[in-house]
């Protein structure tokens, strides 16, 4: 009888421990936004600085930015608008308050070649910042549709 009592106590203990509540598992982390994977707003600002420097050195398109390049305040505002636009478009906390792309580029006569040069300058800045291919592709997919509003046909 003692051995069956011991067996019963062991079985009960095993059942009780199996029924004990386990600590709740932490839910899986939500996927990071592109903004976070790019390194946040500060990293985006660094890429924008490099991008603007690339454009300024690019004889194919730098003449289009001569007015802004010659005015420190306008350049600062231009860069901030670019940062805000990329930040907002990638899921960050920024709000873009500039003109829509069609209005901003109306009458500028931007060609496909101009747009392609701009994209090359951006990719060079992203490469220089060590942005992984996946994030580059995602960012370009967000910005690419702007071509239709910027390029004249």
Number of helical regions: 9
Q: Which segments are poorly predicted (pLDDT under 50) over 5 or more consecutive residues? A: 6-11
CATH arch. level architecture: Orthogonal Bundle
The domain count comes to 1
Question: How are the elements arranged and paired?
Answer:
Blueprint: H1 2-19, H2 34-37, H3 40-56, H4 66-69, H5 72-89, H6 101-105, H7 112-128, H8 133-143, H9 147-150
Compact summary:
64% of the residues lie in helices and 0% in strands.
Task: Walk me through the structure.
The protein has 153 residues and is mainly α. The chain has a single domain, classed as Globins (Globin-like). Helices cover 64% and strands 0% of the residues. It has helices at residues 2-19, 34-37, 40-56, 66-69, 72-89, 101-105, 112-128, 133-143, 147-150.
Keywords:
Globin-like, 153 residues, 0% strand
């Amino acid at each position: 009888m003692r051995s069956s009592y011991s067996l019963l106590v062991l079985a009960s203990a095993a059942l009780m421990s199996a029924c004990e509540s386990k600590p709740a598992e932490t839910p899986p982390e939500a996927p990071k936004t592109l903004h976070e994977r790019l390194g946040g707003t500060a990293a985006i600002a660094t890429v924008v600085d490099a991008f603007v420097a690339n454009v300024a050195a690019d004889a194919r398109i730098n003449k289009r930015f001569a007015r802004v390049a010659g005015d420190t305040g306008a350049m600062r505002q231009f860069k901030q608008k670019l940062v805000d636009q990329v930040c907002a478009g990638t899921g960050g906390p920024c709000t873009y308050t500039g003109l829509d792309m069609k209005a901003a580029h109306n009458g500028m006569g931007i060609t496909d070649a101009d747009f392609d040069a701009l994209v090359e300058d951006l990719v060079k800045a992203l490469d220089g910042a060590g942005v992984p291919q996946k994030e580059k592709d995602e960012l370009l997919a967000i910005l690419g549709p702007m071509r239709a509003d910027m390029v004249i046909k």
